[in-house]
From TrEMBL:
This is N-acetyldiaminopimelate deacetylase. The lineage of its organism: Bacteria, Bacillati, Bacillota, Bacilli, Bacillales. Gene3D superfamilies: 3.30.70.360, Zn peptidases. The keyword Secreted does not apply. Keywords: Hydrolase, Manganese, Metal-binding. GO terms for molecular function: metal ion binding; N-acetyldiaminopimelate deacetylase activity. Its cofactor is Mn(2+). CDD domains: M20_Acy1_YkuR-like (cd05670). One of its GO terms (biological process) is diaminopimelate biosynthetic process. It comes from the Bacteria. Residues 182-269 form the Peptidase M20 dimerisation domain. Mn(2+) binds at C92, H94, E126, H154, H347.
Amino acid sequence: MKTLIEIRRDLHRIPELGFQEVKTQNYLLEQISALPQERLTIIQWKTGIVVKIKGMQGKKTIGWRTDIDGLPITEATGLPFQSEHEEKMHACGHDVHMTVALGLLRKLVDNPVNDHVVLIFQPAEEGPGGALPMREWLKQEYPELVPEQIYAFHIAPEYPVGTVATRPGLLFANTSELFIDLVGKEGHAAFPHQAKDMSIAAATLLLQLQTIVSRSVNPMDPAVLTIGKMSSGTVQNIISGQARLEGTIRTMDAATMTTIKQKIESFCHAAEIAFDCDIRIDYGSSYYQVKNDETLANDFISFAKRDPSTTAIVCDAAMTGEDFGYFLQEIPGVLFWAGVESPFGLHHAKLNPNEAVIDYLVPFIDSYFRALSNK
Ligand SMILES: CC(=O)N[C@@H](CCC[C@H](N)C(=O)O)C(=O)O
C-alpha cells in the first residue's frame, strides 16, 4: 500500500481542470477499491466520487468534502514530482486536500466511528463550480447520503503546520467571475481616425471599473473588483480591434454584488457610446459565501484548542471564494484553514505546501470525527 506522501506526489503530477478530472478520479477509485470494502458504498458523479463508510451505530451522518481539480498554471517549483500536465498545476493544494481525505478514509475503514461518514470528492472548485450541482444531485438521487453536518479544510500558506484557523459565521466572500469582450475596428497605426481602438477603450474601462468599489460601495462593506488579465491587439503598428478584460468580483454582502454588477454594466454601456464599439459581459461562474455554523465552529475551535499538537486561531474573514459555501448553505458545518508554511501563496506557480500537514491533519480530523460521533 502506498504511503500518503507517495499518493500526494502521484496526484500532484496529474492536475486536471474542472470536470476533466478523469485520471484523478481513476487514481482515487484505485486507492479506494484497494481498501476492505465491507463498510463502503462508492458512487460516482461526473468526475467526482462519494464514499460512505458505514458507522457502528449510524445515528447520524457526518460529511467531509475535498475538492479535486487543478489550475491552468504552469508549475515552476522544480520539484521532482512536478506536474506532468502542461500548463496545469495543483497550485491551490487540492492534491493535499484529496490525500487527507484518503488518509481519513483509511482510518475510518480500519476503525469505524459510531456515525456514518460520507466523503465527497468534488470536481471543479476553481471553476465552473462542482459543489452546487453535486449537492443537488446528492439530494435528488441519494438523499440518505446527505450528511447532517459537513466539514472541509483549505491549505493556508501563511501558517505553520499544526495551526488551524477558522471563525464562527462568515469566513469567505460571495464571488463572481467577470469577462468583458470589447469589439471595435482594427486599423493601421498611422490612420487612427479610421479605426476603433479597443486598447484605449479597455484601458479606460479598466480604470473606471476601479472606481466602483471606492465610490459606489459603502466603505464599511468589504468588496473587491480585480481585473487579473487584460489582452488586446496583434502587433505594434496595428490599432487593436478587440480587447478582453478578465477578473473577479468579491463581496461579503450578496446585495453588494448586485450593486457592483449594475455599475459595471453602466460603465460598459457608456464605453460603447464613447468608443463606438460593442461590449459583451459574461459573469462566468459565481459562488455563494462560506458561512460557518456558529455552534459547530465554536465546538471545532474548542476541540482544536484542547489538542496538544494544534495551535487554534480564530481568524478574520477573507475575500477568498470557495464553492463549499453551497454545501454550507443547506448543511451546517465548518471550513477551516490548515497551515502549510509556504513563502508562496495560493495560485502561485512556486507554491510548495509542507507535506507534514498530511500526517498532522489526518489523525487530528479522525479524532475530531470520533469526538463528534460519540456525542
Ligand atoms: C480558495 C481559492 O483560492 N478559491 C478561488 C476560487 C475562484 C472562484 C472563481 N474562479 C473566481 O475567480 O471568482 C479564489 O480565487 O478565491
